[in-house]
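3.2 Worked example (two chains)
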Amino acid sequence: MNSPTELERRLGYEFRDQALLRLAFTHRSHSLPHNERLEFLGDSVLNLAVSGLLYRELEGYAEGDLSRVRSSLVRQGALHDIAQSIALHENLLLGEGELRSGGLRRPSILADALEALIGAIYLDGGYLEAQKVVESLYLPILRQVDAATLGKDAKTLLQEFLQGHALPLPLYQVVATLGAAHNQVFEVECAVAKLSIAALGSGASRRAAEHDGTALKAAQAAMTAVPAKRRRSKKSPAEAPQAQLEFSSANKKS
């Protein structure tokens, strides 16, 4: 195991009990005791710390929106990204089998180790220290993303986008089912008649295909082009009264 000094520098926290740090990185494939109990603890600490951060940073957000954002930030993919950003894999202790099969880069192992690390910080220094570390990891992320859309799938975002422009909801239709029964790919057409859009999405299920982001991108592009077309087709304010006057004169003559 590499010296944890560099990792501690990245975290901004120095362990009093180095045995706790080692335990946080010990996978069950390596030896006993392993980090799964710390992972259990760290999961709860992480959720509380992220909840407090969101409550403070996202003022005015309703409970449902806060839950959605939190869920997105503490899911495996997000934890894996954070673990990679601090090179957590350099400290992992894995069994030979896991090492050979690429365990050092496996998202589930890295995400679990990060949770275990947070649990270890909590035991070593208390909740406030764990909270500081969690916030130092998450604040840069939170300030780079759009919390209003974070965690929402493309289908939901498309519906909200269309509703925001007073347009009817899209219609979905399966147009093809490809591949063998055990490995099918569905192609679904998403049609937005008012924008003349018929976008194809694909996925391992109808639901996955409907959540393809192609239609959302097409709708956003179409709406961006609409104002310019409307501006070109409208008469200027100065022309409008003259046109009305000419129409009135014509009516009088007739």
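3.2.1 Second chain
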Amino acid sequence: MAKVGLFYGTDTGNTERVAKKVKELVEAKIGSGEVDLLEIYKKTKDDMAKYDLLVLGMPTWYDGELQGDWESYISEMEQIDFTSKKVAFFGLGDQYGYASYFCDALGLFAELVEKKGGKLIGLTNVTGYEHDFSKAQRGEQFVGLCLDTDNQDDLTEQRTAQWVEQIVGEFGL
């Protein structure tokens, strides 16, 4: 079985908390030790390129700003050939305070992965969210799991569990 590389960037610890929960839930389904949890800080393209199954977690700050470690990683990511890789995204944002930029980081990175040949998995429905616009939205779907731990934290656990069930299937695990 192929290992899953779960990369995340965090400043406040919220994305790290969700990343750890995703790892726990995935490993409950496929076996302990099958997910490598890696903070994106100081990682190189080679660290990510060795995985064919990827989960990428990132927050969106303020008016669509990227988390600093992910912003620094863009040049590394542009050098990765994502052909034959399946990539699932999850992100955190504030759908009320920054309603026009909700989880924009996912949209930016999803576009980069697709441009480099990757296959997106784990798309989710926008029903139940109250944002105005998101670069992560395509029609009635987000390019991954969008979470708002500021305003809808009571839905985080349920949304995460459903999404993990979905991605495990889409990964073919």
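3.3 Remarks
The chain has one domain: 4-171.
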